[in-house]
Amino acid sequence: MTLVRMPLEDGGELVVESADGAGSIPVGSGSRVVQASETVQKAMGNIRSAAEAVLGELRAMEQPPAKVNVQFGIKVTGEASLAVAKSAGEANFNVTIEWTGVDKS
After folding, report:
1. Exposure of 105 by Cβ count < 10 A (0-12 exposed, 13-18 middle, 19+ buried)?
2. Do the bridges between strand 90-91 and strand 86-87 make them parallel or antiparallel, or are there none, so unpaired?
3. Which of 21, 22, 43, 69 would bridge 2 by S-S if both were Cys, CB 3.0 to 4.6 A apart?
4. What CA–CA distance (Å, rounded) separates 70 from 90?
5. Tens digits of per-residue pLDDT, 39-54?
6. Conformational region of residue 12, where left means phi above 0, alpha means psi within -120 to 50, and beta covers everything else
7. Which of 77, 1, 93 is nearest to 36 (CA)?
């Protein structure tokens, strides 16, 4: 098992189990711990930017949808960073868009 220590901006830390063991440092009895190089808030800011980019592109459509649902998983890697979780080797975004009262002219 690999654990990742991610600092919080208030001085605390969040310890989470990593999705893989790459880049980890052994610390006894088979467990591994790595120290993240950025805060949880900074890492989540990167994820937020990705979500805002997807949403912005959908809202910019000629006939923007009435409802947008974007889902994606977040994993913590052994390199101590947050990433969009992968499925079948590709980044995984599930996007559902819905139109109501669309002008068909």
Report:
1. exposed
2. antiparallel
3. 21
4. 16
5. 888 888 878 888 888 8
6. beta
7. 77
Token pair listed for 94: 């599930």
Cβ pair 6, 43 in contact under 8 A? yes
Amino acid making up residue 28: G
pLDDT over threshold 80, residue 17: no
Q: How many whole angstroms separate alpha carbon 51 and alpha carbon 36?
A: 22
The closest of 61, 43, 48, 46 to 98, measured between CA atoms, is 61
